[in-house]
Write a structure and sequence with these properties.
By secondary structure, the chain is mainly alpha-helical. Helix content is 41%, strand content 7%. The C terminus is likely disordered. It binds a DNA duplex through helix 2, helix 3 and strand 2.
Length: 113
DNA sequence: AACATGACGTATT
DNA sequence: TAATACGCCATGT
């Protein structure tokens, strides 16, 4: 695993249960602003046995990134609901995104909006 | 080397 | 709200 991938996974591991972060937020937190696709790539490289809560990473618009008919989508939705994260039509409703800096940004521009 | 393909995001129309 | 267009970047062909 590359150093950047390790930083990305470290950020994902830091997401508290019941909360979510978008790919872009994870990237920014890992010092890779604007590189959301790199986060998506890193999540696909998660080694088995690596306890990374990948299900807490969603798209910036609040929706799960997998096709609604896929197994991955159902697994992610199930895990989120298990953490009391409400979902409607593949979209996360009640969430308090982790944002390190200003929570105002999330209030104004987060998926909840 | 050239082009296509994503678990993406933002801006524009 | 929806459809495009870019920007971004590792991989696969």
């Amino acid at each position: 695993m590359s150093a950047t991938a390790e930083r990305i996974l470290e950020v994902v591991r830091s997401i508290p249960s019941g909360q979510t972060m978008s790919y872009g937020q994870v990237a920014a937190r890992a010092g890779l602003k604007g590189r959301a696709r790199l986060v998506a790539w890193a999540l696909k490289q998660i080694p088995i046995d690596e306890p990374v809560p990948w299900h807490r990473v969603i798209r910036s618009d609040g929706r799960i990134a997998f096709p609604v008919y896929s197994q991955s989508f159902r697994l992610q939705a199930r895990r989120l609901q298990a953490e009391n994260v409400k979902i409607k039509n593949g979209r996360v409703i009640t969430q308090s995104i982790q944002s390190g800096d200003s929570s105002l940004d999330q209030m104004l521009w987060g998926p909840e909006h």
